[in-house]
């Protein structure tokens, strides 16, 4: 809890500093995430872990405005996690019975980011790239499992135990590209595509390591 408070304080301090600088623009970012786990067992990637779609809703302030360069302070609510379908096998059907235990793991985060931005102005739009640091603070998690009993209940309990022990907060990075225009609509609008890997394992044992990673696809509305 002390780490959570310290992290929040430092990041809000950065936002306050940003607000006191020359602000270029501010606004909202809304879109979707495609997230999964980089899940390693004994150094090998687990097969069958699929991406899970979620939502990403945030606000930003762009400041420290100098030619071709600025900083973006962001605060997002973002959903991450993964999906996995595990085939049910028996001694009679070692390659699978055709049935699956289906998992959908949702992890909700409050995400703070500081992203340096390099801009290129054209006559119609601004094209840019971003790359910076991010801290994700866990808000909640949800484990949904479908399948035959008692496998469904056993699997749900195992995954709930696992996600309840994810590190909090988690530190990662974000890189992306985007385009914004001030002239196409009454308000400045844009689109942004980002990749957000974590720098640390969310969960680790002597056998397993699990790390969040995600892509974000965002619509930007500025003021």
Tell me what the structure shows.
This protein is 14% helix and 62% strand. It has 223 residues and is mostly beta strands. It is elongated and about 70 Å long. The model has no long low-confidence stretch (mean pLDDT 88).
Topology:
Blueprint: H1 2-20, E1 23-41, E2 44-45, E3 49-50, E4 52-66, E5 69-87, E6 100-121, E7 126-146, H2 151-163, E8 170-181, E9 189-197, E10 203-204, E11 208-222
Summarize the structure.
The chain has helices at residues 2-20, 151-163, and strands spanning 23-41, 44-45, 49-50, 52-66, 69-87, 100-121, 126-146, 170-181, 189-197, 203-204, 208-222.
The number of helical elements comes to 2
Structural class by secondary-structure content = mainly beta
Low-confidence runs: none
Q: Span from first to last CA?
A: 35 Å
Radius of gyration: 20 Å
What's the pLDDT, averaged over the residues? 88
Biggest beta-sheet profile: 8 strands, antiparallel, barrel
Query: How do the strands of the widest beta sheet line up side by side?
Result: 1-4-5-6-7-8-9-11
Beta-strand percentage range:
over 45%
Helix percentage: 10-25%
The ordered H/E elements are: HEEEEEEEHEEEE
Shape: elongated
Total beta strand runs:
11
Key structural traits:
single chain, 223 residues, mainly beta, 8-stranded antiparallel β-barrel, elongated
